[in-house]
Write a structure and sequence with these properties.
Length: about 400
């Protein structure tokens, strides 16, 4: 059996040190998702953690363990978002300075949040790996560098979630955890397997960046090409060196989810549970609802909702895509006579059928219709695909030529 750098007692020590310094996040049962999955589904709401994600656990533990080794310069880290905020919060609580290197494409919202927690932000690097290299150079002047995932103490701090899960639910059959660099699942698996070795640990990655999935398939760490993903928090091209042996030994399976599945899960959490989760945090639910995680009928499954830091512009796009995929938005165009009353009659028909107009646009002067007609493009709120079909049938029966987008 592989020997890893951390164990259950290390995680227990971290939990004692973090008590009162981080939030003990709730574990809640979801009746809706339980019915949908045919199992008892529980959500570990780490999106309610200070800073909006689990990252503050590992960062705080790292600082507490290394406080005496730090010089006057404080700490340096690299991150595109959640780790940046976790380190900034931990440094502020410890009364030390923090410098965070973020990729040049990091969202303005995450930059502002990190600065708001008291850290200095430096934009450098076209990738997280480049930002990490810059941060390490800055740390060469005596400051402590805090890696976002490839660090035994970071892994240990994240593992305290596993202890909390078992304290609230002593006998889970499956625990589903998102994987990026591997620090979160490495710590959680260490804690849970140390106490309940029969519990299955399932990792979830976006298919757009399957680094852990590929590593387990090939039996070694590999660097993969990454496509853009709404689960940017787990878009890590190569899992950590310290994390790989833990994942190989303790994680039972790694599954992949597609972008549409993640977007649907974000929307489902928001609508059904009033929980705002970022793409990475919603990935476990995406895997469950897509039947990619095997759970015994009536069994107990815990989904680790790792964070809720979803930028508003992306949230808007995710919601819109999810609504369209679920038949909640009908987008169509129709040609009408360009005379008073024509538009009112069209909108009246939509209203009679229970459709709510979200947006409307006149497209005059097109080559596909005469000078005396105009094309109207509408987005209409619907109750589902059956409702869309009903509205389309009525509109066509009244003489409208409908083109559904």
């Amino acid at each position: 059996m592989l020997k890893t750098e951390i164990g259950l007692e290390d995680v227990r020590r971290a939990a004692r040190l973090l008590e009162g310094r981080v939030i003990r996040t709730p574990l809640v049962r979801s009746p809706t998702f339980s019915r949908m999955a045919g199992a008892e589904v529980y959500l570990k709401l780490e999106c309610l953690q200070t800073g909006g994600s689990f990252k503050v656990r590992g960062a705080t533990y790292k600082l507490l363990r290394r406080r005496e080794e730090m010089g006057t310069g404080g700490v340096v880290a690299a991150s595109a978002g959640n780790h940046a905020q976790g380190v900034a919060l931990a440094a502020r609580a410890a009364g030390i300075s923090a410098t965070i290197v973020m990729p040049v494409w990091a969202s303005a919202g995450k930059q502002e949040a990190t600065q708001g927690y008291g850290a200095e932000v430096i934009l450098a690097g076209d990738s997280l790996a480049e930002s990490i290299s810059v941060a390490k150079r800055i740390a060469g002047d005596g400051r402590l560098f805090i890696h976002p995932y490839d660090d035994p103490e970071i892994i240990t701090g994240q593992g305290t979630m596993g202890l909390e899960i078992l304290e609230d639910l002593p006998d889970p059959d499956v625990v589903v955890v998102p994987i990026g660099g591997g620090g979160l699942i490495g710590g959680v698996a260490t804690a849970i397997k140390g106490l309940k070795p029969e519990t299955r640990i399932v990792g979830v990655q976006a298919a757009a960046c399957p680094s852990a999935h590929q590593a387990l398939r090939e039996g070694r760490r590999v660097r993969v090409e990454a496509k853009r993903s709404i689960a940017d928090g787990i878009s890590v091209k190569e899992i950590g060196e310290a994390n790989y042996p833990i994942i190989r030994q303790l994680v039972d399976e790694v599954v992949l989810v597609e972008e549409e599945e993640i977007a649907s899960a974000v929307l489902a959490l928001l609508e059904r549970k009033k929980v705002l989760a970022e793409g990475a945090g919603a990935a476990p639910l995406a895997a469950l609802l897509a039947s990619k995680v095997l759970v015994p009928k009536g069994g107990k499954v815990v989904l680790l909702i790792s964070g809720g830091n979803l930028d508003p512009p992306l949230l808007e796009r995710v919601i819109r895509q999810g609504l369209m995929k679920n038949g909640r938005i009908m987008r169509f165009s129709a040609c009408i006579d360009d005379v008073p009353g024509s538009l009112a009659r069209l909108l009246g028909t939509v209203a009679e059928e229970g459709g709510n107009v979200l947006s409307i646009h006149h497209a005059r002067g097109g080559l596909d219709h005469s000078l005396f007609r105009t094309r109207v493009e509408l987005e209409v709120e619907a109750r589902g695909f059956d409702h869309i079909d009903e509205m389309r049938e009525v509109l066509e029966a009244r003489g409208y030529e409908i083109v559904v987008r």
